[in-house]
């Protein structure tokens, strides 16, 4: 499904047109948008949808890098489109926009995030207060070793960029993925949590932390400069210790 460039869409007086190719189903559709100063990729998609083709589907919310919902594959790389300037990624004046990889496509550039969050559930990425939680809030000193261990990891906003960048998810769809494992690591270091045994068992399986090949794709592509690879390495250590403890108890 390839349409000719719509040069009529280029605003009068514009000195240069940006060629935008958008993956739509099995084909690619071409558009032309005027280049503007400080233009973001999300600006481009919004202009196409509002001015040229109202049928184009995509997702966004905050526009300032807080929600993570505008993720797309831009010229082959998963990114937040609201924080990606056209000048930085399209110096030759061409953009190829595709949906995030490793997730089902709802329509055009919008993907279904349900498998992503289902893997959070499988990794026990939720706080477990136990059957008899304490009456008062627990104090967690900011300088405690456990808190410092996960200080960066708790800033994840679940955008799915690392999941889309992960080679292992592409090879093994059952793999829990870097975001779910990063979340598990933050909870493993939460001194208030009472679900550690079940969580470590959940992330130690065939599709868990030990499947990671440490390609560092998640760390390389994270828009917030987090390091899921190192969180996964921490889980490998803790699941190994848990296995040794079980072995000692048997003896």
Core attributes:
single chain, 251 residues, alpha+beta, Ubiquitin-like (UB roll), Fumarate Reductase Iron-sulfur Protein, Chain B, domain 2, 2 domains, five-stranded mixed sheet, two-stranded antiparallel sheet, 10 helices, 7 strands, disordered N terminus, 3 iron, 4 sulfur cluster binding
Please provide a written account of the structure.
With 251 residues, this protein is an alpha+beta fold. The protein has two domains: 104 residues, Beta-grasp domain (Ubiquitin-like (UB roll)); 138 residues, Fumarate Reductase Iron-sulfur Protein, Chain B, domain 2, CATH 1.10.1060. Helices cover 35% and strands 14% of the residues. The chain is built from ten helices and seven strands. The strands form two sheets. It has a five-stranded mixed sheet with strand order 2-1-5-3-4. A two-stranded antiparallel ribbon has the order 6-7. A hairpin with a 2-residue loop joins strand 1 and strand 2. Helix 8 crosses helix 10. The longest helix has 23 residues. The protein is elongated, with a radius of gyration of 22 Å. The relative contact order is 0.12.
> What is the H/E string?
EEHEEHEEEHHHHHHHH
Shape: elongated
Count of DSSP strands: 7
Q: Please tell me the CATH architecture of the largest domain by its name.
A: Orthogonal Bundle
Q: Give the integer mean of the pLDDT values.
A: 91
- Radius of gyration equals 22 Å
Structural class: alpha+beta
Percent of residues in helices:
25-40%
